[in-house]
């Protein structure tokens, strides 16, 4: 058994190995999330998870990492930055003929890549302990998909504080990062959480297009554009369609207006750079991709997971929100008549056609809140190129 000073040296080593592997920040915490259980339960009781049944399926296991990985004593929480260069947020949101894709999803899917790297970190710890003549540790890497509360763990491990939009953010890094964890049965020294610096700011709450941040730190998933465009399988309720604007996959607005994000670092991973096919993409072009084109162009991307049908559903809404154009009417009608389009998508196309007809004579109309987000980005976000 390592003594406390050996464990401290090991923790320091882990942090430098993790940086070599590509993680920007690493923190360590214990597995006690008892304080989070009532909040998670309340969130589920209110139905904020919508159709994300996986959120309710494992009971309170999400708040009990030691049940997920028996014997686990510590969680090593890691951060990987994804903000791509040439993010072009304002240019993209401002032009309603372009589709906006959340900047976490412009490049390669992060899940596998991050899990492999976290496993590499675990392997390195294991071989180091074996060199010291210690027993082989038990460890398991997780990224996103496991039933575990990643944000409260990152908060506890000092990666950042929980912002009012419920994401983890840090003074130097903002919030444009993914989280992952290595659960391990080694009693490493733990890190201290950092102070919450949101203060009186409520920019994220005020700017959310669908009022999904129902109170500070609490997101009603069912209202979030990220949920509606990615997780929700069926028809998108009509009340949300005009509010979605041109966001066809995910949403970044609560992060875009966050002052802590003004100096956030760019990703060091080439994999997270936006691929050409979806760099400031024209809605009419995206809408005309066949099923096969969608699968080929989105190979290796998280976007592929939603499938062609939800992709068309989302773009149809954005086309309905775009200014009137004969070309849009034409592509909508063409797709409506295609034999391989589902009834669900057709219903969204009909809605879009109706919107286009209503707007035939009217001026370009970008939602008021979106205009505020664009202004905030143009004013202060250093990284908007
Ligand atoms: C389900 C899910 C969603 C859902 C629900 C969102 C939600 N807020 O829960 C939807 C689809 C809407 C979503 C959207 C997004 N997601 Co998401 N999502 C998840 C997932 C799988 C689970 C989150 C969860 O457990 N929710 C349950 C609720 C109850 O937990 P919570 O929101 O963390 O809430 C806690 C605190 O808010 C706290 N709380 C409550 N009251 C108070 C009061 C105070 C004072 C404090 C301090 C705390 C507090 O208690 C809660 C319970 O502990 C995680 C991965 C994971 N396994 O953790 C990724 C994850 C949270 N998502 C992530 C991302 C990037 C996003 C998006 C930015 C993607 C996008 N651009 O479209 C958006 C952001 C939307 C938002 N503002 O949250 C990242 C966040 C990284 C970060 N920097 O924090 C994660 C961690 C994935 C990853 N591995 O990187 N997501
Ligand atoms: S991602 Fe968009 S819709 Fe979801 S909470 Fe943030 S601003 Fe609101
Ligand atoms: S926008 Fe303001 S309130 Fe929201 S997370 Fe950022 S600092 Fe906190």
UniProtKB/TrEMBL annotation:
Question: What reaction gets catalysed by this protein?
Answer: epoxyqueuosine(34) in tRNA + AH2 = queuosine(34) in tRNA + A + H2O
Residues where cob(II)alamin binds: 62, 144, 162, 168, 179, 226, 251-252
In Swiss-Prot or TrEMBL terms, this protein is called Epoxyqueuosine reductase
Task: Give residue ranges for domain 4Fe-4S ferredoxin-type.
Answer: 186-218
Note on how the cofactor is bound: Binds 2 [4Fe-4S] clusters per monomer.
Q: Which residues bind [4Fe-4S] cluster 2?
A: 208, 224, 251, 254
Q: What does this protein do?
A: Catalyzes the conversion of epoxyqueuosine (oQ) to queuosine (Q), which is a hypermodified base found in the wobble positions of tRNA(Asp), tRNA(Asn), tRNA(His) and tRNA(Tyr).
Tell me the HAMAP family matching this sequence. Answer: QueG (MF_00916)
Cofactor(s) annotated in UniProt: [4Fe-4S] cluster; cob(II)alamin
Task: Kindly tell me the pathway this chain contributes to.
Answer: tRNA modification; tRNA-queuosine biosynthesis
